[in-house]
């Protein structure tokens, strides 16, 4: 019984399949007959629906193609499809002839239905219809804007875009419903117009290259990019086969700051798919633009130089004093404009060429405007004479530079710092704008180094100026008869002179470098590093020195140390703690000066105690330094020889493996210990007075 049921199931399945196949065969045979009849009558509306059904039914008979009748039906379907394609193309050719003077016909329902049939036929039929229609639709454009026509030149480029706008409006009104919406015919016409325009413009520009001027070129590029932006608003770019994701129309500020009102959290607008579809043809001629920017920037630098000579440097006591020079901002604003403009034209080699121009004029600005205007000679060379110092009289101004010149140096320093920071931002923005393969060729390190050199030179000038102002006082110190000093009094005239110059110069420099505190700190450090060794060298020239003279020098040294520790905020109403790095330098240097004087004050008898005391206080194993100490004490040569021999014997043996240098590993007294010792010394001096 089970076997019989199984046989019945197979029979039922086969019977069902046979009935279904016969039904499909009936539908296919009838459909093919109807398809052939409708094709002859051009009943495209009915054909569009029937053809798809016949094709779908025919797919069920692929495994039966060995049967002659089935194969014959398949061949009839293919013949009908081929005939439909040829017939539809002929109908379109008749309605829209590609040659002759006959004007194209209007839209018709027959052609609209024919487009629906073309959707089912071989895709090449659809492409051929689109190609012929667009070619015929733009044939007038090729005639009107031939290379030899006056309207073909760049100055009348607006007429090209006005023409296509009218044509697109005309197409929408006449043929908008004839073609299926998914064919995107309006966009296809616009894209083909762009390809033709790019080719034609490239051709005419090659022919008339000598006539291209920068204003004309920029005018044409501006109108073209505006048109490309208009296309991006109107179309999606779905028909483009070569979308270029390069250089979006980015309206942001390239390197100074974001545009006002722009939210950085807001996502950026998508790239314009039409960017460069026409404007790419201008790229080979952008050398005209680059040469123009070279010329314009050269004239801009010359104007900056002339304005500086005419208006003079910033004056002390004014808002401009010590501020960034206005020409600096003007230069970078112009750079911003050029970079944005060029990046919209091209992100390739022209951007590299523009970067080279930027580098050239950044260096020229640094040389001609900044370094070229740094004061080089004394404008007021009066100073304190040794005799006036010895008579405790204050002379005339000893600084090499006037207040206005100090203000100018600070302005140049501030400007160089601004240029340094902005050049770094410029480099970053250029790398963002240029093609990725060219990023490595953007390098403004050399220009940043140039501005760093201007900063260093400016600081060095300020240091040298204050240093030079203190030189006469130090010379006077070394010439004073310290052996004849009979009592310890207030600070010596040379100290008063040094403090006077510090109080004159430092507040001016600090106020004019208020926006660049780190460079004011550098100035203080460099001055201290220069002044303290010079002061110690002049101390060694003070010979011979009596006990009282050494006490006076020690008091003077402490006064200078106090002033130097207060140097960053001297003369300021706002008391600000000096940087720890600066304080460490002052304490270390001036403590050494104090230790030298303490050794001079110590009795040289017995010699062993004196030598050990020297080694303990100075921790200096250099015999030359010890020789200078002995000269300051006024010892005779015979005494010095025995002392030197004893000094060499008493020097501690350096650790094994260590280099035998002049310095010793003794730890110097802490600043707190030295401050306590100085206070004790001051009390002693007051008691003696």
Automatic annotation (TrEMBL):
<dbReference type="GO" id="GO:0010008">
    <property type="term" value="C:endosome membrane"/>
</dbReference>
<comment type="similarity">
    <text>Belongs to the VPS53 family.</text>
</comment>
<feature type="domain" description="Vps53 C-terminal">
    <location>
        <begin position="551"/>
        <end position="635"/>
    </location>
</feature>
<keyword id="KW-0967">Endosome</keyword>
<dbReference type="Pfam" id="PF16854">
    <property type="entry name" value="VPS53_C"/>
</dbReference>
<keyword id="KW-0813">Transport</keyword>
<dbReference type="InterPro" id="IPR039766">
    <property type="entry name" value="Vps53"/>
</dbReference>
<dbReference type="Pfam" id="PF04100">
    <property type="entry name" value="Vps53_N"/>
</dbReference>
<keyword id="KW-0333">Golgi apparatus</keyword>
<keyword id="KW-0472">Membrane</keyword>
<feature type="domain" description="Vps53 N-terminal">
    <location>
        <begin position="1"/>
        <end position="308"/>
    </location>
</feature>
<dbReference type="GO" id="GO:0007041">
    <property type="term" value="P:lysosomal transport"/>
</dbReference>
<feature type="compositionally biased region" description="Polar residues">
    <location>
        <begin position="664"/>
        <end position="673"/>
    </location>
</feature>
<feature type="region of interest" description="Disordered">
    <location>
        <begin position="242"/>
        <end position="271"/>
    </location>
</feature>
<dbReference type="GO" id="GO:0005829">
    <property type="term" value="C:cytosol"/>
</dbReference>
<dbReference type="GO" id="GO:0015031">
    <property type="term" value="P:protein transport"/>
</dbReference>
<keyword id="KW-0653">Protein transport</keyword>
<dbReference type="GO" id="GO:0000938">
    <property type="term" value="C:GARP complex"/>
</dbReference>
<keyword id="KW-0175">Coiled coil</keyword>
<dbReference type="InterPro" id="IPR031745">
    <property type="entry name" value="Vps53_C"/>
</dbReference>
<dbReference type="InterPro" id="IPR007234">
    <property type="entry name" value="Vps53_N"/>
</dbReference>
<dbReference type="GO" id="GO:0042147">
    <property type="term" value="P:retrograde transport, endosome to Golgi"/>
</dbReference>
<dbReference type="GO" id="GO:0055037">
    <property type="term" value="C:recycling endosome"/>
</dbReference>
<feature type="region of interest" description="Disordered">
    <location>
        <begin position="650"/>
        <end position="679"/>
    </location>
</feature>
<dbReference type="InterPro" id="IPR038260">
    <property type="entry name" value="Vps53_C_sf"/>
</dbReference>
<protein>
    <recommendedName>
        <fullName>Vacuolar protein sorting-associated protein 53 homolog</fullName>
    </recommendedName>
</protein>
């Amino acid at each position: 019984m089970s076997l019989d049921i199984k046989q019945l199931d197979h029979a039922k399945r086969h019977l069902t399949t046979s009935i279904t196949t016969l039904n499909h065969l009936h539908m296919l045979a009838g459909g093919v007959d109807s398809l052939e009849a409708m094709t002859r009558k051009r009943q495209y509306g009915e054909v569009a629906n029937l053809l798809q059904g016949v094709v779908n039914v025919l797919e069920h008979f692929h495994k039966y193609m060995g049967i002659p009748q089935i194969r014959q039906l398949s061949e009839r379907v293919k013949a009908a499809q081929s005939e439909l394609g040829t017939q539809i193309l002929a109908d379109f050719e008749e309605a829209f002839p590609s040659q002759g003077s006959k004007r194209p016909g209007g839209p018709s329902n027959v052609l609209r239905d024919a487009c629906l049939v073309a959707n089912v036929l071989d895709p090449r039929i659809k492409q051929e219809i689109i190609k012929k229609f667009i070619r015929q639709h733009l044939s007038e454009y090729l005639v009107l804007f031939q290379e030899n026509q006056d309207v073909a030149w760049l100055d009348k480029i607006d007429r090209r875009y006005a023409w296509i706008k009218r044509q697109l409006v005309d197409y929408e009104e006449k043929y908008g419903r004839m073609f299926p919406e998914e064919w995107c015919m309006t966009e296809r016409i616009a894209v083909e117009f762009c390809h033709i325009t790019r080719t034609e413009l490239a051709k005419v520009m090659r022919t008339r290259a000598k006539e291209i001027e920068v204003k004309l070129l920029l005018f044409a590029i501006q109108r073209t990019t505006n048109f490309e932006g208009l296309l991006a608003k109107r179309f999606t770019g779905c028909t483009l086969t070569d979308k270029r994701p390069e250089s979006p129309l980015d309206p942001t500020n390239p390197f100074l700051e974001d545009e006002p009102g722009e939210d950085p959290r807001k996502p950026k607008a998508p790239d314009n798919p039409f960017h460069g579809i026409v404007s790419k043809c201008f790229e080979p001629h952008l050398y005209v633009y680059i040469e123009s920017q070279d010329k314009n920037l050269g004239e801009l630098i010359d104007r900056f130089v002339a304005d500086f000579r005419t208006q003079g440097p910033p004056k002390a006591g004014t808002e401009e004093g010590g501020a960034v020079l206005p020409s600096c901002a003007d230069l970078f604003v112009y750079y911003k404009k050029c970079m944005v403009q060029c990046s919209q034209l091209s992100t390739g080699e022209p951007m590299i060429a523009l970067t080279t121009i930027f580098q050239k004029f950044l260096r020229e600005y640094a040389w001609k405007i900044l370094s070229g205007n740094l004061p080089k000679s004394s404008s007021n060379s009066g100073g304190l004479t040794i005799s006036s110092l010895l008579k405790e009289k204050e002379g005339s101004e000893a600084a090499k530079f006037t207040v206005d010149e100090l203000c100018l140096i600070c302005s140049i320093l501030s400007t160089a710092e601004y240029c340094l920071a902005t050049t770094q931002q410029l480099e970053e923005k250029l790398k963002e704008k240029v093609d990725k393969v060219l990023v490595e060729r953007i390098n403004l390190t050399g220009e940043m180094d140039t501005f760093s050199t201007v900063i260093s030179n400016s600081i060095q000038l300020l240091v040298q100026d204050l240093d030079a102002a203190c030189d006469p006082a130090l010379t006077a110190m070394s010439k004073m008869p310290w052996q004849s000093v009979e009592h310890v009094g207030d600070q010596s005239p040379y100290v008063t002179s040094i403090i006077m110059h510090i109080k004159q110069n430092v507040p001016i420099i600090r106020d004019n470098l208020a926006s660049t505190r780190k460079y004011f700190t550098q100035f203080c450090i460099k001055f201290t590093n220069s002044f303290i060794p010079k002061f110690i060298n002049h101390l060694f020239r003070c010979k011979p020195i009596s006990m009282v003279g050494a006490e006076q020098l020690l008091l003077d040294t402490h006064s200078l140390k106090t002033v130097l520790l207060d140097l960053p905020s001297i003369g300021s109403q706002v008391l600000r703690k000096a940087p720890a790095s600066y304080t460490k330098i002052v304490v270390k240097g001036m403590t050494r000066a104090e230790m030298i004087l303490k050794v001079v004050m110590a009795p040289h008898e017995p010699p062993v105690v004196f030598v050990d005391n020297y080694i303990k206080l100075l921790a200096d194993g250099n015999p030359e330094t010890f020789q200078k100490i002995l000269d300051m004490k006024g010892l005779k040569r015979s005494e010095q020889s025995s002392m030197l021999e004893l000094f060499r014997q008493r020097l501690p043996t350096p650790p094994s493996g260590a280099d035998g240098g002049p310095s010793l590993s003794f730890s110097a007294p802490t600043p707190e210990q030295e401050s306590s010792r100085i206070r004790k010394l001051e009390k002693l001096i007051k008691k003696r007075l």
